[in-house]
Amino acid sequence: MSLPQYRSTTEYKEILRLLQKASLDGENFIWQTVDGERNLIHIDQMEIDFVGRDVALKLVFSSEAVQVQQPVYVKLHYRSSVFKINHFQLTGQTLQFAFPEDIKTLELRSHPRKSFQPSQEKTVSLKPTLGNARDIGNSLNVRVADISEFGLGLIVSEQNRAYLKHNPILWLTHLERTELKYPVLAEVVHISTETNRKQKDLKVGLKLSGVLPQEIVQKFIQ
Fold first, then answer.
1. How confident is the model at residue 118 (pLDDT cuts 50, 70, 90)?
2. CB contact at 8 A, 62 and 41
3. 182: buried, middle or exposed (CB in 10 Å: 19+, 13-18, 0-12)?
4. CB burial class (10 A; 0-12, 13-18, 19+) of residue 174?
5. Rounded to an integer, what distance in angstroms lies between the CA atom of residue 183 and that of residue 124?
6. In angstroms, rounded to a whole number, what is the distance separating the alpha carbons of residues 97 and 108?
């Protein structure tokens, strides 16, 4: 039996969704490790403040109290999600804290993905299916957010929305500067808008119709 695969998410919308789903479940708890022992306390109720962007947990106290000087770990039953909070307020049985910036959650994909930071600057080249896939004219070079065996997550500038709209099926021709001997067809299956400090980008999901050569993928993710 294979072990569960986890991934970290820092995307605000996904973190909000995880918290919302978990708030409907009664099997959540927190824990602290104090003097080498794990102190586990169940969560009776979970409230989310969407305006203030914080969370309030009503706890079912055991005989041990929460140590305010120690970080607290929260375990959500929904997708076995886990996150750490270093700063919180404890009033009676209520523990309050700001939305976490990072949550580790169960990877539901059958083929785990490898995510990249913007500083890694991983890119791929795409080309419309009309014409010769080897012709570099009208090709699009875009940044990769993540890669799995049968898909790619891309960050594409808003200016290229029309390119994707008119070319929902594309050839994947290069990973970085490595040209694929046999270009792989890629279908645009998801587009959403992501706004950062500098500009508005598109998060684009591609579904691949073929398997990428492992030696090229391994070189790409290093």
1. confident
2. yes
3. exposed
4. buried
5. 12
6. 27
